[in-house]
Amino acid sequence: MSKLTNLLGAASLAVIAGATSGAAETVLTLNSWLPPSHPQVSELVLPFAAEIEEVTEGRVKVTVLPAPMGPPPATYDLVKNGVVDIGYTVQGYTPGRFKTSAVAEMPFLTSDAVVSSVAYQRVHDAMLAEAGEYEGVKVLAVHTHGPGQIFSSSMIESVDDIQGQKIRVGSIVAHDLAKLLGAVPVEGPSSKAYELLSQKVADGIFFPWETVNFFSLGDIVKSAFVAEGGVYNTAFMMVMNQAKWDSISPEDQAAIETIIGEPLVRKAGEMWNAADAAGRASLEGSLAIYDASEDDIAALRERFAPVVEANIALVSEAGVDGQAAYEMLLSEIEKLEAE
Questions:
Q1: How far apart (Å, rounded) are the C-alpha atoms in residues 47 and 39?
Q2: Which side of the chain, N or C, has fewer Cβ within a 10 Å radius?
């Protein structure tokens, strides 16, 4: 009888332990490679982490790791393999792996990062996700930064002035545009920008205004070629390990679903718009800025057409209709700009 009592007691404890474990909070680890003061972190990633805890009433919490577990290009695999639970990065940091992101990096899309980000998220949800490039992760958001421009350590008043220069790029389309313009593309994450320029590994850089300002490049670059809508753009992703997502209760998954996707990318776009405006305001007195005219942009559209066509074909290589995806992106941009 004593043995039976002990067995029943042990079984009861196991049930209680299981129930307690099920009710315990889920702690997600988030890998961040940008400095904590960068607006991508301080104004997007950290508020998003806090919002997850809020909408799940504390049942799911996010811990941002104090140091990155690997370089930016490793982020996706760190998440996919479960080394970390959540991460953000740029698709173009691993060239050829995320072909569909090229659709959001085309030249002269829009000067509004909210518009480009929301349009990209909508196209991803409607078409690009079918390519299966993000297998093994839960896509929380795909978005863009603000319109990318050209900055150089020498004077530029035309895109032809970068011919022969080594230009740091960080996206699929920017790489192709740099080559088209006779420059030598230099790959590297944004966090290495100062190092690349100060050590003369690169002569110039394709960047949005915010990033030039944040990484204190104003004392290295001397001029900027600026075009309405951006000479190019860069795609970003924020992803979660799929198994970790699946382990979260349906109730909490539903709560988190209300703050990812379009709601999250709108916040990303708002962050970039504000940061770019502040960046340009801070740098205008120290740079020679050439603002491209409408005629300049019309000529560049024609000149850039081969790159646009090649990257539409690249998207199609992933198994989706690249032309239809690009046309949907432009249509969504037009609708969003009219709002």
A1: 11
A2: N
Please report, as a single letter, which amino acid is at residue 261: G
Q: What interhelical angle do 46-55 and 250-257 show, nearest 10? A: 130
Q: What is the DSSP code (8-state) at residue 91? A: G
Do 174 and 107 form a contact (C-beta atoms < 8 A)? no
Please name which of 101, 44, 95, 71 lies closest in space to residue 192, comparing C-alpha atoms.
Answer: 71
Q: How far is CA 215 from CA 104, 221, 267, 277, in A?
A: 24, 11, 22, 15
- Domain hosting residue 134, numbered range: 24-98+113-144+234-275
Q: Indicate the helix (H) or strand (E) that contains 311.
A: helix 294-317
Residue 105 falls inside a structural domain: no
CATH number at residue 164: 3.40.190.170
Q: 185 and 302 share a domain?
A: yes
Task: Give the pTM.
Answer: 0.90
222's CB contacts (< 8 A; 6+ apart) are: 152, 153, 154, 155, 287, 288
Q: Which two tokens stand for residue 178?
A: 């740099």
CB under 8 Å, gap of 24 or more: what pairs does 182-191 form? 187/93, 187/95, 189/33, 189/71, 189/72, 189/73, 189/90, 189/93, 190/34, 190/90, 190/215, 191/33, 191/34, 191/35, 191/72, 191/215
Query: How far is Cα 30 from Cα 34, in angstroms, rounded to an integer?
Result: 12
64-101 pLDDT, tens digit per residue, is: 999 999 999 999 999 999 999 999 999 999 989 999 99
